[in-house]
Amino acid sequence: MIAMLSIQESLTVLVVDDQAVPRLLARAALESLGHRVLESADPEGAVRLFMQSRPDLILLDVEMPGHDGYWVARQIRAAEQGGWTPILFLSGRNGDEEVWRGIEAGGDDFLSKPITTTLLSAKLRAMQRLLVMRAKLLERSEELRAANAQLRELSTHDALTGLCNRRAIDERLHQEIAACRREGQPLSLALLDIDHFKRFNDSAGHVAGDACLKQVSQLLTDACLRPRDLAGRYGGEEFALILPLTPRSGAMTYARALLRTLARAAIPHPDSPVAPNVTLSGGLTTCVPDEATTAEGLLLRADDALYQAKAKGRNRFFSYEMQLDTEEQLHQNSRL
Ligand SMILES: Nc1nc2c(ncn2[C@@H]2O[C@H](COP(=O)(O)OP(=O)(O)OP(=O)(O)O)[C@@H](O)[C@H]2O)c(=O)[nH]1
């Protein structure tokens, strides 16, 4: 592999020449320098052999019957797709025009026949150096790409829970407002807050508090069943759920299911006046976005609804638009 190449390593060299004698001479010179040789006597065969064997370097005759060496170079460059195999042209002619055409076709150097072993050795060393430098450059680029991906992950995700952070939630909310506006579809947003979490921390300690936040986060992640649903940590013990294509009644049903799932998970709360287990309250807002809809406006409405849910006794979601909480909706439904 190129990435592992060191300057001392032997190369696999593809020699392309329609005449047997220059091929033999090149083979002898290359083998005396410790390189491995592949041979091709025709242009199409050379491209096929290149594709099969992926040599480290190509010695390419210019004048051949049918397609010439420039054609072979162009085929190889097109087939490499971002790769780079050094191509040295070998020709009886070495006028400026010839050299220019060779470089234009994708060649890296142009040598005149007959070539001496010393010159060939020097040219190969130069190409090997370039290969090593290129491999290092690729390695650095890959490291940079990985570091960038890590930075992106850090800038959009919360370290404790692995959920999207506030910045990523805000960005997605803007995107979904625009998407739902285009589609004419409802968008629901929920802000959630664990009930009496200060008491949890004060009783069980911050480490247990962190573990509880992780458990709730996992539960919210699992609750995002549709591809466009998103759960994020909005800050502290507050979470956000973005539910595109979800009308207000659907959002209420979703919220009730979420509370049931949390109740079933039965995460013990050491000091909650609401229940022996962890509960949460949520504020819901739903709209079909129009030109006047903003992320800030939706967040404010969801926060207002969350305040209502807390005021009405916690362990429930309140919908801003329905002016109803999940408890009231449950009783309404059971009366029907
Ligand atoms: N363990 C832990 N605690 C956190 C973290 N972030 C915020 N908190 C705690 O969450 C608690 C939030 O307390 P409050 O805002 O008073 O709310 P609450 O006690 O949940 O009361 P209500 O929301 O009214 O039910 C504070 O004690 C914060 O220290 C965190 O990352 N880890």
Question: What are the SSEs and their pairings?
Answer:
Elements: E1 12-16, H1 20-32, E2 36-40, H2 43-53, E3 57-61, H3 69-80, E4 87-91, H4 96-104, E5 109-112, H5 117-156, H6 166-183, E6 187-194, H7 197-204, H8 206-223, E7 230-235, E8 238-244, H9 248-265, E9 280-287, H10 295-311, E10 317-319, E11 324-325, H11 326-335
Parallel strand pairs: 1-2, 1-3, 3-4, 4-5, 9-10
Antiparallel strand pairs: 6-8, 6-9, 7-8, 10-11
Helix pairs in contact: 2-3, 7-8
The structure holds guanosine-5'-triphosphate (GTP).
Guanosine-5'-triphosphate (GTP) is lined by residues 160, 193-199, 201, 206, 209-210, 213, 236-237, 310, 314.
InterPro entries: CheY-like_superfamily, Diguanylate_Cyclase, GGDEF_dom, Nucleotide_cyclase, Rev_trsase/Diguanyl_cyclase, Sig_transdc_resp-reg_receiver
Catalytic activity: 2 GTP = 3',3'-c-di-GMP + 2 diphosphate
Enzyme class: transferase
Brief descriptors of the model:
EC 2.7.7.65, 336 residues, 6-stranded mixed sheet, Rev_trsase/Diguanyl_cyclase, Rossmann fold, phosphoprotein, Alpha-Beta Plaits, diguanylate cyclase activity, diguanylate cyclase, 11 helices, alpha/beta, single chain, binds guanosine-5'-triphosphate, 2 domains
